[in-house]
Amino acid sequence: MSEYLGEFEQIVLLAIARLGESPYGVPIRREIEKGARRRVSVGALYATLDRLEAKGYLHSWFSEATAQRGGRSKRCFRLLPAGFEALSRSKTMLDRMWQGVSIEGGSRA
Amino acid sequence: MSEYLGEFEQIVLLAIARLGESPYGVPIRREIEKGARRRVSVGALYATLDRLEAKGYLHSWFSEATAQRGGRSKRCFRLLPAGFEALSRSKTMLDRMWQGVSIEGGSRA
DNA sequence: ACATTTGTTCCACAGTATAGGACAAATATG
DNA sequence: CATATTTGTCCTATACTGTGGAACAAATGT
Known about the structure:
The structure is a homodimer. By secondary structure, chain A is mainly α. Chain A has four helices and two strands. Chain A has helices at about 5-20, 25-35, 40-55, 80-100; strands at about 60, 75-80.
């Protein structure tokens, strides 16, 4: 297992952090599409959630079913401290690498 | 080909942007190890450089050999505008997702 | 000639990203 | 009650990215 988070892994953890209240798959997906302005397939999302939980960055459990049409039990998620720390490490590293790069566009003569 | 950059791809592009003067493999590698504080194997670096060039984010060419022991021709790199734009897109997206997350650590009660 | 130094390429494999269909579990309805 | 509809998760297959290290290439040194 790599010491660092992939791009999409970061986005998923951040979406959960933003939502806060034990969100489940559907809201998480919506939050990513809205916040990152990027299409997300269901499969991609759950695969990543599984991996993040296996790494100990996330915890999940099943809620009770609700009395609504299709209101089956939902798999809720919570960001664990280790997840937040991994997120911070990635951010710190990227921020550090961006220092001194600025607006020069990279096409110097 | 994904629309977004992987974590390591970002780091490689940033290292080249920071170095500026048509750097080649060895200095790029050193810059990453120093700047990102992360170990980089040669193979990992060149594989990523090749992919970034194939995507049109980077341009490379071979320099003349120099009169030094082992001073063979070097493969020099330059960040292309498309590379800088891709980098900016990734940064903008991550910055947007970080908004509202702050220091709460993610382990709310 | 052959050793040493510096650099790059190749190869094999692990890990991450992606899409979409299959499947499960609830209520609605005739 | 049998079946349709709705909501949500799981599974499977495949492409792309990340990884390390050995092999190879091309200079000068001795």
